[in-house]
Structures are given as C-alpha cells and as structure tokens.
Specification:
heterodimer, A: alpha/beta, D-Maltodextrin-Binding Protein, domain 2, 2 domains, 5-stranded mixed beta sheet, 4-stranded mixed beta sheet, 17 helices, 14 strands, 12% strand, B: mainly alpha, MetI-like fold, 0% strand
Chain lengths: 449, 284
Amino acid sequence: MRASTFAKTTAVVGAVALLSTGCLQNPNAGGGGGGGTGGNAYVDGGSADGDKVVTILGAFGGDEEKQFVASMAEFEKSSGIKVQYTSDQDFTTTIKQKVNAGDSPDIALFPQPGGLLEFAAQKKIQPIDTFLDYDAIARTLLPGLLDVSRYQGRVYGAPMRNANKSLIWVPKKAWDSGNYGQLDTWQNMVGPVSAKVKASNIAPWCMGWGSDQATGWVGTDWIEELVLKMYGPEVYNDWIFHRIPFNDPRIVKAFDEFAKVAKTPGQVLGGTQAITATKFGEAMTPAFATPPKCMMMKQGSFYQSFLPASVKKDTDNQVELFAAPEYAGGFKGKSVLGGGDLAALFNGNDPDSIAVMKFLSSDKFGVPWAKAGGWMSPHKTFDVANYPDNLTREVAKMANEADAIVFDGSDVMPKVIGSDVFWKQMIAWVNGQDSKTTADNIEAAWPKS
Amino acid sequence: MSQRLMKDGRPVSPFSIVTMVLLSILWTIPTLGLLVTSFRTRDAAAASGWWRAFTEGGWTTANYSGAWNGSDLGTGFINSLVVAIPATIIPIMFAAFAAYAFTFMDFRFKELFFLLIIAVMVVPIQVAFQPMLDLFGPRGLGISGQYIATWILHTGFGMPLCIYTLRNYMSTLPRSIVESAKIDGCSHYQTFWRLVAPMSIPAMAAFATLQFLWVWNDLLVAKLFLKSENTTVIVKLQQLLGSQGQGAELLTAGAFISIIIPMLVFVLLQRFMIRGMTSGAVKG
C-alpha cells in the first residue's frame, strides 16, 4: 500500500512539474542536462569559432537574398560580426553533403523542417534552448511554430520567417461588382458562390500546379487545408506525423471534398487537364484580364511576388484576400495552414554564431525585409506598420488572430513522401486516379521505421 | 555540265543541302525562343508563346539589367575565368604527357594502365562528390572553398577522355619521325616538346574547346567546392532565384550573358574543332 501511495505521489509531483514547465514547453528549463540529446554538450560544426565571421546557407536568392542581407546590415555594424550568406536552390541536398563532409555552415536556414529533424537526430544541430531565451521567444512567437522542429522533446529550429497558406485570392474589382456572396463556409465557397461565378461566364477557380520537378505541391496544400478545416489541428498533426495512417477514411474524404473543385467540370479554368500544365506562379494572371477568365485562387502569402506587374503596383485596390473559410461541421474557429523558414545552429560553441541566432530569432529582425515586401515575421509582437501594404498587414493579422496554426504537412513528412510521392500521387489523382487508391499508394510508400 | 561540282570534285547534292538547312533551323529554334523570351516581360512571356512576341509585343531589356545587377555577374565572370582557364590547361598538359607515353614508350602493363584510365570514364562525377567533399573539407586537406579544389576536380574528371583522344591522335602521327628523332639522339623530353606536341595542336585545341565549355557550364562542382565570394557565373545565375522560383525571367537573360565567353572561345577555336574531332578516327 505504501509503495503505491508513494508511486502516486511521485506521479502527481511529476505531472505538476510537467505542467509548470509544460505551458511553455521548455525542455531544458532548469538549465540542467539530461535532455534528449545530452544536456548542454555542444555540437561543433561550422567555421572557426570567435573569428567574427558567420557563414549562413539558405535556399532563397535574388531579391530575397538582397533583403536578407539588408536586414543583417545594422546588426553587423553594431556587433562587428560579418555575415556571409550563400543561397542554393538545391538547399536540401547541398546541406546534407556539406554536413556529411564536416564542412557545414555555422547557421542554416531550413525551408522545410523535415531535413532539420534528420540532422537533429544525428546530433548535428544545437538545441535552441541552450543558447536562446526559450520562454521569451515562445511568448512572442505564433503558436505551433516551435513544435514543428521538436525532436525527442527538444526544439532545434528557431523560426525566422512566417508564411500563411490559408488564403483565397480574388481580383478585387471584379469580385466587388459581381456580388457572388460570402465566403463564410467552405461548402458555400465551393457550392453556391462558385456556381454564381460560373453563371456569369467566368471560371470560378484559377488553379496551376506546374512547378517543374515539384509539380503537385499546390495540390498537397489543398489536401492539408481540407484536413485541417474538416477535422481540426489534432487530427491534422496526427496525420502529418503519421500517428494515423495516410489512407485513414477521413483523409480519403478530404480528397473527395477537393474533387468538388479540381475534378468537377466547369470549376477550374481550362478544365482539370489544364491544372498540371499551368505554372503555379501564373495561375492567377487570367483573373486580371478584362473580363476576368477565372475568379478565386487558393495560394500562400508569397504569391504576392508573382502577381502581374500592373497589379503589383496597386495591390490594395486590385486584390482582395479572404481567409480560407471554416468547414461547416468541421473544426470550429480560425485555423491557419502556415509555413516558414527555420534557423538552425551547427556551430554550438561560437559566440558570434549564437549572437546571430539571437538576432535572427528575435522580433527585431527583418524590418527592412518587411518594408520591401514578401516577408512576414513569425512574431506576434512584430510591428505590422512595417509591412508595405494593407494586404500583408491583413495576412499577418489573420495569423495573429488564429485559434490554431499548423505547419505545412508535406514539409514535415519524410522527404520521400512530402517532396516526392505525395506530389506525384496528387498528379495521378488529378489525372483520374480515385481518392482511395491515391491515399493507399502514399501510405504504402511511407518509410517503415 | 549537267551537274555542278563542289571544290573537291564531288557532285552537289540538293537533297543534303535541304536536309542540312532544315536540321540547322530545327536545332536553333529552342535557342531562338529563349532569346526572344529573354527580351520579354514576365507577364508577356506568361500570357503568350515567344513566337507571338512579334505581333503582341511586351518587349523589355529589364531582364538583362536585372540579371546583371541582381547577382553581381561581373565578379562571376572573372571567377569563372579563374576556374576555367587553369582547369582547361592543366588536364591537357598532363594528358599530353600521358598520351605520349602510351603511344611512343614501352613499359610493362601499358595496355592494362590504359584500360584502367579508360574504365574510370564510366564513373559519373556525382557519385564522387561526397568522398571528394570529405577529402577536401576541413577533416581532410582543408582546400574546399578555394579555386584549387575545382582545378583538381576538373583535371581529374577531364583527363581520362583527354588521354584517350590525344593518344588516338598521336598514334596517327608518322612513327618514322619519332624513330628518326630517336636515332638522332633526341631524349623523350625533346621529342615531345619539339615534335609531338606541335604536331598535336589540332587535337589539343579541339579538346581544350570541349573542356573549357564543360568547365564553364559546370554548376555542381562550383556550387559545392567554392564559396559564395569566389563562385562562378553559372552558380550566380542560379542564385538569382527566390524561394518559390521568383526571378525566373532573369534566368533567360542571364543565360545569354553567360554564353558570351564560351561563344568567343568556340568561334576562335572551331577550325581546330573539326580537324580534332575526326582525329584518329581512321587509325586502326
């Protein structure tokens, strides 16, 4: 009897301890070791320590690279640290080769958490709680962004960019004059509203999946959106982390729901067969023709940089954004399918790299980038006045007010699924394969562990 | 005089003239399309195919200025030359020595060694990246990120084919010349520099053209073994793209900027190209 009472007491104490740290989920709260990857031991990759030079590898180049460099300029001046950024379109492969050869950068900016988790498992990345004020950034970050890079209880990626994928884009003038109704529920959106658009001789949906070897990812976003809206964040996370099988009947139902848009005649501009042939970056261009050829498009916040030049000059008057609506009978509340870049530290004992990480993960980072457009802070406390237009401010507000934010599932799933099989099966699905077979095929390809 | 004759006395064939003109046009069309697209705005290129540019317009030179300014292509050009020139000269120099030895010298296991060198041509460069990164990286020689790393790699991967072509060419040279030089008391060193090397210039120039083009257009070696400060123009082009491929319209313009130097090289060396390509083709 005594023994069992003792066991109960410890269980309660343990639970209380879990709860008290659990609200902020800092696994290293006491500063003690014993975490999943060996307490406070340091990973020592990257370039020389304390040399005032920090190397960063990321996936974005061009304008985004310029804005990133501009965002680091002031920090470099005040700290005396030189940041050397390299971009690589084939980031996922390059970082793997570099790390395996012992030639890792000090910091890498992961566009997908999947690759980051692999390195976390190999103990190549420093858990962020050992050098960042975990509780402080957890308070200001949008909820859910830290959990996506959690491995065995510890968090390895510091969010430095946020994306919102739960957006419906429409051409403002045509939409306002058309009186198509409210996007209050998903069913209304794909039903009566779409029918009304169709009645005015405009295709209700602009849809393009074309993205070279990555063709199909736009389709995965739709499925993710539907799983989130129909069943809520818990089922969604169970699904992306494979705690329920991919071919669960509920997921198959989400495919069928999507078929009401993608595979129903008259819903998509050019018909179903045009979907994979249209480039995702050009999907909405026909919506700005007079008269518009299509009306609604579901795409992430980054699409702003793909708008036609004439529209980009005047986004606030030309484009209207709606949050993807709730699914009637599904999850109640505002839910957002998000994404973003995560910074990971490979050089755990270099004070300069740590200083850069602290700056990158703070709500101070990114003001010049925000002003130039195309970037949103993952922090709720970031001043929205910095964004260049109302459109971006609106998107940021949607994320700040969301009841649930989940991470883009195909970025979290194992690479062979999320960046290959899921895409290809979506293409097969849109070309006529039925929902059940599609989900079964993806489940069959899931790596056995 | 029913049939016109060519310079060498063979009759002119209208069939082959028509075929060749058609084929050349067919082969040039994609490049022409790329050239037209590089002068069109992103929206115009998205709205209609390049062949409709002549009626629909949408012309711009902004892609060229955007590509040039967007990624510091000027530095990229200099870096590319620093990579490509030594990476062309070094393999040809070594390969010429080796080809001379394989053609005119006798030593044990000569055929076996030659076979081995030819055999490594089947190793694709991609499978060698991980071990080479390891060897050149901080755990090995520590030269990763410097020009010398790319010179070594391009030399290693260019040499087998170079040895093969040069040996085939050298074996067509009249053996009697080399033998008489031997009788006159020439060392191998003298024979090579005074006789064989000058006579092999067409083959070497032909291979130099190929090797230069290959090194200039290389993306993977430069990307993995150089740093962003000293990387080549091809890598800089790729870095024009944003996370979802924003800026793709600049790539077409960048591609035409980057082919200026290879075009010059090709034009200057092309008369050697023709002679070098067929070198050794008839020798059994």
